[in-house]
Amino acid sequence: MTERTVAVLAGGLSHEREVSLRSGRRLAAALSDAGASVREWDVDAALVERLRSDPPDAVAIALHGGEGENGSVQAVLELLGVPFVGTPAQACRRAWDKPTAKAELARAGLDTPDWVALPHTTFRALGAQAVLDAMVDRLGLPLMLKPDQGGSALGSQVVTERAELPAAMVSCLAYADTVLAERFVAGTEVAVTVVHDGDEPRALPPVEVDAVGGVYDYTARYTPGAATFHCPARLDEATLGTLAETALAAHQLLGLRDVSRMDAVVDTEGRVQILEVNVSPGLTETSLLPTAVRAAGMKLGDLYAALVERAVARG
């Protein structure tokens, strides 16, 4: 690549700070191997002054959760006129809010598990047990409970019995004020990365996730050996094609840019059910995007170097 000065942003103050730092270190090393001059910057009160006084050619975002995915950091970069790899601020906000993103996907005819999103105040005002009973009557069991915003499956868990719901709700509300209750879909869990490193966006080989405990939660995501990955996923060619088409459709529908990752389940009837779409996929040693990049015969640094060039060209 043309030697570029790239600032890799990682850390921040979200619940996912440690994961972000791991992603940032790996991305910085990969870009350095690809020929970039890399600066690793935490996201703190000194960031704006750093960007003003020593502007890089581009920024690569390795932030997870909070300001790194909800569009806040992206909005500041846009205000400062700093080119960056990733999705624009407004589209970040849309994808960050899971109920909003699911509603847009569903309106476009894409499959996503049936759901309801309710704030903490609703349970307090109307009676928690009555609302929980209505939730189960409508969606059935098992249910997947997750915060309406956030990543890394923090606060997410599968509930198989009514008696488990109150404790699961408390755990979920520790990470957000609104709970997204989703019908649990049995099937093959997959992740599809979309990259736009050439003329058109393209889907990388789908990664199939086989978690030891049956649920791809925070522990399974970041503990080596807690999950087994197969890339490409062990699915027939028609389903692999549908996964790629669905990921591209979701990426474009939500207005995402450069790189994204769709998490989905291929249900027992072969339908692709979108769980969520991520604007800042993990880059750690156990993350799914690097697995897909290797399966595509690429190097992580080369991919991000191409994305940096696109960001610089955008100005």
From TrEMBL:
A GO molecular-function descriptor: D-alanine-D-alanine ligase activity
Keywords assigned: ATP-binding, Cell shape, Cell wall biogenesis/degradation, Cytoplasm, Ligase, Nucleotide-binding, Peptidoglycan synthesis
Catalytic activity, reaction form: 2 D-alanine + ATP = D-alanyl-D-alanine + ADP + phosphate + H(+)
The protein's Enzyme Commission number: 6.3.2.4
Domain ATP-grasp, first and last residues per copy: 102-309
Pathway(s) per entry: Cell wall biogenesis; peptidoglycan biosynthesis
Location of the protein in the cell: Cytoplasm
Record's keyword annotation contains Repeat: no
Alphabetized PROSITE patterns for the sequence: ATP_GRASP, DALA_DALA_LIGASE_1
Major localization class: cytoplasm
Signal peptide: none
Top-rank lineage group of the source organism: Bacteria
Chain's role: Cell wall formation.
Family membership: Belongs to the D-alanine--D-alanine ligase family.
Protein name: D-alanine--D-alanine ligase
Record organism: Pseudonocardia xinjiangensis
